[in-house]
Amino acid sequence: MFDQISQFIQEKFNTNDFIPLHEPRFIGLEKELLNQTVDSTFVSSVGEFVDQFEENISSFTQSSHAIAVMNGTAALHLSMLLAGVKPGDFVITQALTFVATCNAISYCNAEPIFIDVDKKTLGLCPVALDSWLDANATFDKNGSCILKQSKRSIKACIPMHTFGHPAEIDSIVKICKKWKISVIEDAAESLGSLYKNIHTGTFGLMGTLSFNGNKIITTGGGGAILCNEEIYNQGKHLSTTAKVPSETYFFHDQIGFNYRLPNLNAALGCAQFESLNFFIEKKRDLAMEYHQLFKDSDFHFFTEPENCRSNYWLNTILCQDRTHRDEFLTNMNDMKIMTRPIWTPMNKLPMFSNSINDGLENTAWIEDRVVNIPSSVII
Q: For residue 47, what is the DSSP state?
């Protein structure tokens, strides 16, 4: 079976050389817009392409507004600050995530609480979330959600749309609304993914995107916050060092951040946006071919959850167990086909090993079995 899989991948990507997991495609006006930006001399955080890129994002996702920032981690950090996360607060998230999520929580001097994921979506499980909150949370005299044991605030919840597959986000939002917890969607991997025909990242108070070089479209390095108008105005202010607009003097009214996306990166993003729908179509085509390839094999190809349209950012298979997984990884990588296991769960990293969790049974099961396989757009 390994030979059959490797042959299929090499033929699809038309090479026997190294095949990466996900590389960018530049097939449009990228060089033209980059040259235009250089010629304008507006290569930093001021320029027409930053505004255009934000408009492209909000239009595509049907979000009220979008704030373009320097990377997805900055988007998460700024979103939590805008949601009112304070030092000592708890933020609920999943252990099965990229470390940036928990790093951003730490930047706020807050602490993560890890809730298990759903095997059907690979995202935060609403049943597990509801059960844990019922058992461990209550309200203080002001009506704010707190942990029963320590009385510390549970301020936000960050579910992730893993590998581009939407979590059961409407149920998560409903539960968090009951507990007065702000939802910030980590949609870094799910640009172009829909849940019940609505774009991921637009269900909660805010959503965050990433435009890193390995994402479906890229700005080299970049991210964005999807939000309403009030948050947009405050977030844009904070992301530009909290400088009060003036032509005659410099004045900053609070501690801000130099998080604004440079015009040079935004120009690349504007060019990439023109190909986004084409990229999604091609990635979905590849996913369906993978689905057929693995149909009668010892591997389960992970398909989009019910009521979803996934972008299939990283195609995913489930092996029988950890031994089977490691055998697959070794064989593919020996054939110069890049494959990788899922991230080490956050509760197993030294800096988060003492964080509260709910047992994470599904997380451990998935960690032993998941492998990502080459998913670049095939032109």
A: S
